[in-house]
Amino acid sequence: MKGEKMENNELLYLSEEDTIRAGLLDIRFCVDNAEEVFRTVTRGEYLMGGPSENEHGIRICFPKEKRFPGMPVAAPGYSFMAMPAYVGGPFGAVGEKWYGASLQNLKKNLPRAYHMVMLNDLETGRPLALLTAPLLSAARSGAAPGVAMRYLCHDGCKKAALVGAGLMNRFVILALFSECPGIESVQVYDIDGEKCKAYCREMSEFTGREVSAAGSMEEALRDADIVHTGQSNSFVLKKAWLKEGAVLLISSDVEIEQDILCDAQLVFDHKAAHDIWIQNDPQMGLPTFDALRLMEAGAIPADRVCDLGDVIEGRRLPEGVGHRIFYWMGMPVSDIALAAALYQNALDKKIGTKLRLWDKPLWK
Ligand SMILES: NC(=O)c1ccc[n+]([C@@H]2O[C@H](COP(=O)([O-])OP(=O)(O)OC[C@H]3O[C@@H](n4cnc5c(N)ncnc54)[C@H](O)[C@@H]3O)[C@@H](O)[C@H]2O)c1
């Protein structure tokens, strides 16, 4: 019989190297997977957390003041988050991504976030697989803007700008070269100039294409037909910096000037999730909140707004003549769908390490 057979008391552990061997660096595979996720979500064949069935996850945020000795306090980017999801459609998978993150890690030369994904059997709840997932998480994060490139960017796009020379933008650049074959130049801006140069060197070598470091945000964005934001600290995105008609792919915390927003065509990853977010956690200050408030005030008409799933399903494109903006804030369904596909590949190719839950449960 082809493929790995798992016993009832076993789960498959996939290290980062295992996930790579199972196909994680195959960007077309990741973008196709992300496209199916958007399709599945727009058809309503999913569940995410909480009573709204649309929550991003549950966060532990430490307070500004210590409440007892030994308690950590709030710090930039310091959080712990559980992100459960069921994704139906072609996936039929359930699981959870769990991570701890801190921006301080970057100073210690550590990853910003440590993600793990657990997949469970839909019928019994039995754990099927545990995956090391910082790279998986970056891949699903970079693949979604790749779907937006597939559906929202036109063939004439020749220049791209990436903000942030981090992990997510490694997959975004792979998606860019894969989805937009007409791209001739990529400018990258990062506040850390040395990191930016190292990223450009590495990604030029990896892709065999030229990737250049820009000296300023303005320089990177000036002539870009496509802009992707994937930086960790917020900035104000100015209309004066942008080429007319540039497509803006917003995956990180950015304050977009109101002039841009009021004319724009807005494509959400899944607007229902942002409606819940602004209600439950307005302090979070996501980049979508300004747009949602302008919509509520009537400054952005409803026909300028849709979900990417609507575009994929051929139902509609947003009206309007300004910049096309895609908002991508991440969804747990994406982690589970990509993990499920990698798990299947790992079984087929006999990749990974079997772990035993027990030889025999002591008490049931
Ligand atoms: N939408 C999603 O699904 C999703 C998923 C993961 C991360 N994110 C967001 O994207 C950000 C980047 O994620 P990552 O894993 O690539 O992080 P990373 O730490 O690997 O990279 C972030 C980079 O941004 C640079 N940077 C910070 N502020 C900047 C600024 N104002 N201008 C230019 N460069 C700046 C940093 O120097 C760093 O190199 C995260 O902080 C998070 O906010 C979004």
From TrEMBL:
Species lineage: Bacteria, Bacillati, Bacillota, Clostridia, Eubacteriales
Protein name: Ornithine cyclodeaminase
PANTHER family, sorted: KETIMINE REDUCTASE MU-CRYSTALLIN (PTHR13812)
EC number: 4.3.1.12
GO terms for cellular component: cytoplasm
GO molecular function terms attached to this record: ornithine cyclodeaminase activity
Ranges in a coiled coil: none
Origin superkingdom: Bacteria
InterPro entries noted in UniProt: NAD(P)-bd_dom_sf, ODC_Mu_crystall, ODC_N
Keywords noted in UniProt: Lyase
Pfam families associated with the record: OCD_Mu_crystall
Keyword check for Coiled coil: no
